[in-house]
Amino acid sequence: MTERDEGRRLTRRGLRISGLGLAGLAAVYLVALRYTPVERFQGLPQKIFYLHVPAAWSALLAFSLVGIAGALYLWLRDPRLDLFAESIAEAGLVFSCVMLTTGPLWGKPVWGTWWTWDARLTLTLMLFFLFLGYRVLRGAIQEPGERARFSAVVGILGMVLVPFVHLSVYLFRTLHPQPIVLKPSEPSLPWEMLRTLLLSVGVYTVLLIGFVTTRYGLGRAAEAEGERDVR
Amino acid sequence: MGDFLRAALAVAAKDIRVEHRSRTALVAAVAFAALVLVIFNFAREPAAVSREALAPSVLWITFSFAGVIALNRSFVVERENAALDGLLLAPVSRSAIFLGKYLANLVFVFTVEAVTLPLFVLFFGMDLTGSLPGIGLTAVLATAGFVAVGTVLAAMTVRTRFAELMLPLLLLPFLVPPVIGAVQVTARLLGGRPVSEIAGWLLILGLYDLVFVTLCLMVFPPLMDE
Amino acid sequence: MTSPRPQTPAAVPPLLEACGLERRFGAARALRGVSLSVNPGECHLVVGPNGAGKSTLLRLLAGLARPSAGRVTIEGAPLAGDPARRRLIGLLSHQSHLYDDLSAAENLAFAARLYGLPDAPAAVRDRLAAVGLAERASDPVRRLSRGMVQRAAIARALLHSPLLLLLDEPYTGLDPHSSDQVTGLLRGELAAGRAMVLASHDVHEAWDLATHAHVLVRGSWALTGPRGPSLDDFLRSYRAVLHG
Predict the structure, then answer these.
(1) Interchain CB distance below 8 Å, A231 and C53
(2) Percentage of chain B exceeding pLDDT 90
(3) Is B92 within 8 Å of chain C by CB?
(4) Inter-residue contact A126 to B173 (CB < 8 Å)
(5) Best exposed site among A20, A103, A162, C83 by fewest CB in 10 Å?
(6) Residue pLDDT, tens place only, A46-81
(7) What is the ipTM of this complex?
(8) pTM
């Protein structure tokens, strides 16, 4: 199978998975609205939590993968790792945008303000800038080997930065409700809510895989059709 | 180890000598810092916000921007006449080259900070007696890590178009933890708080430096390796 | 039991040996299957159109870039992963690798420190004198003419007495007088036993120096081997492979 065919096959598969993910997202929306109990103190607006939190986690996961793929690229110098990192970064950019728009949508009715500088929202904003910077850097470098090396380093540096940002911002006082799911002692979420949240996390993971696969496939096909013997 | 240090110090000495000859970047960075202080003075509504409340933020924002400007120069000089290739040809490890440029950058940024601090005291009428050693230590800890990252990023962005925009765009996220820590420490120092309150932040700053200087030393060779 | 073979003296490996060099990223190939063998006193001329891969080849030979496949050995030992081996190589390109704000002497003094040379001041003085820059040694490089800059660059490239000198378009931007000076300097170095690989898209300048002539087209050798006596014949063959 030629590279272009492989690229097209991956793209089709990726689109199917993304379609599945989007359908799943609609299902989550439905489940969250109709089949999950309303939270006592925050009311109906709290339900955006099921879209908002998994998007944030996906963005975080995406950037960690960009960093790891970058480190592997520097070691193995396989161009496919670079394409993989590029695809994940694009998906991560989308997910952090989703989070940054749903966050304020939740914040306004609940806290009366569009934006707060709490730990989780700030972290996602930082991730957004890191993804954006990664994208802009790639756009400014023509030579593919140089582009791959440089983005790999930015990915690694960014990945190591994230925990420091999280630590500093968290210490710097937060308004965000305590991370209810991750309390070590006992699950604080009632089962019905936890179930919806986990469903949402699963759907977002499927969406991530779908976007990345599609983008990767498009990239392979484009590479095959692009210039050959280029220095 | 001897070769490594010799090469690093040679590179650092060369960078300092080149900068000393032309002096452009250092003067520009210091002038920039002074202007930022002036703008801050006029951007403040005196009745609403006291100088003391704003002082730590003003100081660290000024240091950050001036630092980014000073960093941009470090690889520009190598871009002319492809001098970086001349460095990479030498029988020395890439990490030694990084260390040399990092040390030179530290000298530049510390110099800018050392000149800016008296200006800050002058323009804002702050009394720094007693807190000066603490502020000095904070400046060292807050600067060391981000200059390392800035050295690596400058090596990359100098080869791109829009280098002057690219470096700040990539570097500013890395300023967030040091600036948060530095402002917290400076505010407490100026407020005469006990050392115990700031020890935690200083530790975080120190950890940040250790992690990023090591990471940059490790990442520079594969970065330069085509 | 077979009789023992008569002892033959171990063959001396060539000074520079490149085997099956490839340089690619994904589908794009800059070099493919390029091999080269260089001995002391030889000057290998590499010509080819722009984009053929000449600069890429020289960067691989200099250790500035690593090949995707194949390897480069200097005096029998691989160049990769051994920074110390780079000491045996000097590179001269159309960019001078010099700092404009420093003088020629300061530039060379820095190179001497980088290479860990003993008795640096004497070495710097001698090298600059050998290229005819003794009087201008203290002037900032930005005040030197293009020809002088190139001579200073040669002095820097030869400061650590490399066994192999790589030259990438050394005649670019030089007037005829300066070109002749450069050729004269290089001829002296060849006579002293140095080896050279000289890449140029202009055959005429370096023809007299060359002992071997190769043509690189789209990343691989179109012609290779010792240099024939006739420049015209070579140019005819060169044109033939370009259009063929």
Answers:
(1) yes
(2) 48
(3) yes
(4) yes
(5) A20
(6) 677 777 778 888 888 999 999 999 999 999 999 999
(7) 0.91
(8) 0.88
Partner-chain contact B152 A136, CB within 8 Å: no
Q: How far is C-alpha B168 from the geometric centre of its chain's CA atoms?
A: 12
Interface of chain C toward chain A, CB-CB under 8 angstroms: 25-30, 51, 53, 56, 68, 218-219
How many CB atoms sit inside 10 A of residue B16's CB? 15
Q: Which of A32, A205, A46, A55 is nearest to A111 (CA)?
A: A46
Asked if A134 and B153 touch (Cβ cutoff 8 Å), the reply is no
Subunits touching B (CB < 8 Å, at least 3 pairs)? Answer: A, C
- Cβ contact A67:A127 at 8 Å: no
Architecture of domain C16-93+162-243: 3-Layer(aba) Sandwich (3.40)
Q: Report chain C residues whose CB lies below 8 A from the CB of A228.
A: 27-29
One digit per residue, pLDDT tens: chain B, 226 residues? 788 999 999 999 999 999 888 877 888 888 989 999 899 888 887 777 777 778 888 999 999 988 888 887 778 888 877 888 899 999 999 999 999 999 999 999 999 999 999 998 888 888 777 788 888 999 999 999 999 999 999 999 888 888 888 999 999 999 999 998 999 888 888 887 777 778 888 999 999 999 999 999 999 999 998 8
Residues of chain B contacting A168 with CB distance shorter than 8 Å: 176-177, 180-181, 204
pLDDT 10s digits, C36-88:
999 999 999 999 988 888 999 999 999 998 898 899 999 888 888 788 889 99
Cβ distance C114 to B17 less than 8 Å, yes or no, reads no
Tokens representing B117? 């601090």
Domain extents in chain C: 16-93+162-243
Give residues with Cβ within 8 angstroms of A81, minimum separation 6.
Answer: A69, A70, A72, A73
User: Which residues are within 8 A (CB) of C28 and not within 5 positions of it... i.e. 6 or more apart?
Assistant: A144, A227, A228, A229, A230, A231
Return the residue of A nearest to C24 by Cα. Answer: A231
